[in-house]
Amino acid sequence: MANVRQVLRHCIEGLTTLLYPPALSCPLCREALPREGFLCEKCRLLLELWRAEPHCRLCGRSVDKAGELCPDCRRQPPLFVAARAAAPYDGVFRQAVHRLKFRGEQFLAGPLGKLMAQVVAAEPLYREVQLIVPVPLHPRRLKERGFNQSALLAQELGRQLGLPCREALRKQKDTLDQVGLRRGERLANLAGAFSVSQPALIRGKYVLLVDDIFTTGSTAVHCTEALLRGGAVRVAVITWATGAN
Prior knowledge:
It is a single chain. By secondary structure, the chain is an alpha/beta fold. The protein is 42% helix and 14% strand. The strands form two sheets. Strands 1-6-5-2 form a four-stranded parallel sheet, with helices on both faces. The longest helix is centred in the N-terminal third of the chain and has 18 residues, at 2-19.
């Protein structure tokens, strides 16, 4: 009964915010905009400052010097071409994805997806991407939440970039929640969790994998492995946020 009430509450909140998004307010911090625009000056500046910091050239997480690899990528380079994020997993940026994911504010997929699309369009490594594929939820989790936030972000990316979006992956293993698990535990937890549901859609394609958050990269690693086994030729990753869990 509690799960039913939670789903209903999320649906009502999501429908309300979808139909009546805050007018003339920043979608991230919800402060009133001093003039009509997309983001408030504070959030825009925070994003610019973070993006100017050095990031791992493979996974996109913060590093000490520009052009270097993070310890995880030095130890075991990932199979994906690169992973990039639109924002740090911190402050209002973390709160925004939590509002989308846990409070059902589905209208946020629009502005978050738009900012993600800007990152993709600016990354030379992503210029030949042919297909967008979201990270799937297990059917049980999808039933509880009522929507897949990664699929909503992927659909907005498709609209912004003019690329097809297809739900070509499935999650057949009902895994433990990743929160609180170490990187090795996360990788083990997701082993065998993902597979390609429609190989014909991805065969021979350069795929852009879409997720909401990149922390250890375990989800991206296992989804990339599944896509390459299923026939994709290359996989790149884009998420809303990246950083420590």
